[in-house]
């Protein structure tokens, strides 16, 4: 199986070989409007991950019949250096664009926030082609590296070329570290933690795979995982190794659960998670 067929077997929509030596994002069969597929091709080895389904990277290696058509090592190294420079340029451009968009945004309510049960919540709203887009700043350390853009229907996208790995948005009042994927989930967790009077540092990680990356830099905490049909959220939480909460209904995240059962019941379920924190501590 060649590299393209290998990538397609993970649901990644890819037609041509990617640039050598860099991670390249692609749409997937299950999320054709997003770029949940990631591939990296080095000629003699390749890496593939569908972030909506996989918490680990899968490795491809060519068989003997394919090796004769692979580029030479000097050519691959040259292409790799060129692509690394291009990646850094795109990331810098995206970071500058993110800062500009945030500076040009206003602070107001948004249809997405209201749909998620937070009618009084406000955020950075940027008007793009006449439509209000909610911007979620994404930082690595103290530096803005990009934004997640959420439209009125809940469609989500990142800036072209931006860095996403290791990036997060944090709600903090200097308490327990809590990892989650989505912004609406974080708002729900914040509301519940406020109700049970517990301090928090809630990290919006934007994907299950990125939760694992963020967790590596933290000593301890809990995970609020999505109950995906694929099991990706639960697997990521298990891999992190912290106590975790997950809805009892497949297909739900914490916000879905809160809207279904109410804030009080959700906050009580998080209280049970706090008991596990003491057990693990």
Tell me what the structure shows.
It is built from 9 helices and 14 strands. It is of the alpha+beta class and 281 residues long. It is globular and about 60 Å long. The model has no long low-confidence stretch (mean pLDDT 91).
Summarize the entry for a quick read.
This protein is of the alpha+beta class and 281 residues long. It is 37% helix and 24% strand. It folds into 2 domains: 3-71, no CATH class; 95-280, no CATH class.
Question: In which order are the strands of the major sheet placed?
Answer: 5-6-7-8-9
How many runs of DSSP E, i.e. beta strands?
Answer: 14
Count of runs of 4 or more consecutive helical residues? 9
Largest sheet entry: 5 strands, antiparallel
Provide mean pLDDT, rounded: 91
Q: What Rg, in angstroms, do the CA atoms define?
A: 20 Å
In total, the number of domains comes to: 2
What separation lies between the terminal Cα atoms? 47 Å
Question: What characteristic shape results from the CA principal axes?
Answer: globular
Poorly predicted regions are: none
